[in-house]
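Hi support team,

I'm opening this ticket because the web form for multi-chain structure prediction keeps timing out on my end. I have pasted the exact lines I submitted so you can reproduce it. The total is 524 residues across two entries, so I didn't expect it to be a heavy job. Is there a limit I'm missing, or should I split the entries? Thanks in advance, R.K.
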Amino acid sequence: MNDIPWLGIRDLARAMAARQLSPVEAVRAHLERIDRLDGRLHSFIAVFADAALDAARSAEQAVVTGWSLGPLHGVPVAVKDLFAVRGSPTTAGCSFLKEPAAQDCTVVARLRAAGAVLLGKLNLHEFAYGPEGVNVHFGTPWNPWDATTPRIPGGSSSGSGVAVAAGLAPLGMGSDTGGSIRIPAACCGTVGLKPTYGRVSRAGVLPLAWSLDHAGPLTRSVADAAVVLGAIAGHDPADPSSSTAPVPDYVAGLDAPVKGLRVGLLREHVEQAAPEVAAAVEQAAEVLKQLGCEVQDVAVPTARYSLAASYAILAAEALASHEPLLHRHGAQYTADARRRLLAARCLTAGDRIQGERVRSLIRTEINSLLQRVDCLLSPTLPVPAPPVGVTEVQIGSRRESLRVALTACTRLFNLSGHPVICLPCGFSSEGLPLSLQLAGRAFDEATVLRLAHAYESATDGHRRRPPVG
Amino acid sequence: MLDYLVRDLAHEFALSAEDRAAIHQMMLRIREVVAQLNELPLTDVEPASVYKVVP
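Hello R.K., no limit was hit. The queue was backed up. Here is the completed structure from your submission:
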C-alpha cells in the first residue's frame, strides 16, 4: 500500500490489467495519502473521495468481467481547478466562483473515457495569472522539496506540480499560457508537457488568453506523459483552435533510437541562467551527445522581444476575458490580480498588432531552426525555486524580477505554439530540482517525447523523491 | 494619458487610492516594455494569425 502512490500511470494500468492491483486499492492508497499530507501541502481544492471510490469499484468490476480496458483504466488522476468537472464548481483558485459546472470539459471527458478515476481538483495561482503558484484563498501549495522553507511551487498549475511530485496523484492536468505547466513541473521536479497549440482541446477550460492557452499533463515520467497525451489529444469541434492533425501512438515510438537526432542548444537561455542551472543543461547536452545526438548552438534572435510581445498579447487577452467578471466581482479579486488585469487598459490596438508581428517573426525563426535541427534544448527556469515572497532573484551578476525570470525561457513557445516537454536534469546545491526543456516541430510531440524519454532513461534525476511522508 | 486612463478605471471599477497608484506604476512598466516592439523593423511583417499553427 505504501508504494502504490509512487507507481506511475503505466505501472498502475499494467498492474490492474494483470489483476495484481485493484482500482479500489489504488484509489484508496491515494486518498489516504491526500488525507494524511494535503493539510500541509494544499495541493487539492476539492477531493471527490466518494465519487472516486464508486468509479474505482466500477473499474474493478470491468476488470473482473474482462471488459475492454482503456489506457488509463482505474488510474487515479486530478485536474487543475480551471477544468470543468460536472457537478463541481470551477473555482479558478478564486473566492467567488461557486456555480457547479453543467458538464465535463473535453479533457476530463476523455480522461474518463480512457478509464481514469478523478480524485479531485487541484490548486492554482488565482485565475492562472501568475508564475509563482501562490494562493491566498486555498493556501499556497507547499513545494515538497524543502521541508522547512516555503518555496514557490511554480505556477500557475502549482497544485498539479505539488500533487504529482508528492505522490498524491500520478497525473495532474495543467494549463500553460506563459509557462504554467512547465514552471511548476520544474520547481517540483516533475515532467510537464505543453503540447502544440491546437493538439489538446481547451473546451471547458476557463480561458486566460485564448491565443496562448494550452492544456497538458504533469506526470512523474515521460512515458506517462505520452500515455496521457494519447488519451486527450485529437480534434474537438467545441474548441475553435483544435487541430484535425492525426494523433499518432506516442507510446509505441518512445523507445525508437535517438542516434542521429540533431539538437539545437539555445545558447542565450543557457548563458542567462544561474551557473548551476547552466551547468546542468550543458551536462544534459553531453548526455544527449553520448546517446548519439548531434548538438549545436542555435539562437532565436527575436526571442529578446518575447516579453514585450507577451505583454501586448497576454495582458490584453486576459483583460478581455476577465472584464465582465471584474465588473461584477472586482473587489473579490486579490489586489495583485485586479491591478495587473486592469493595467492592461494602457495597451493600444497598435501594441497588439506589433506583438502579433513579433510573434510571427519568432514563429518563423523557430520553424527555420527546426528545419536544421529536430529539437531545441534550453533550461526551463533560469533559477531553482526561490522562497515564497521573493520578488527579485539574483542570476549571476544581475538582479531580475522573479516574474520576468520565471517565464524567460518558457513564454517563447506559447507565442510560437510549438510543443515542449520539460523534465528534471539534476539538483541544485540546496537539493532543489533543476529542469530542462525540449521543444520540437509543430505536431511532432512524438520526437520530443522520444528524445526526452531517452534522456530520462540515461539519467536518474527523476527517481529521487521529495522529503515528504 | 495614463492619468486619464487610471481615473476612468477608478470610476468604472470603484478602485481605491492604493489600486490607482499601483495600476499607474504597472502601466508605466507595461508602456516601457511594450515600447521595445517599436525597435524592430516590422512594417513588412504580417501579424501572426492565432490559428496559423493549426492545420
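A quick check on our side: Residues 15 and 54 of chain B are 41 Å apart (CA to CA). Let us know if the file doesn't open in your viewer.
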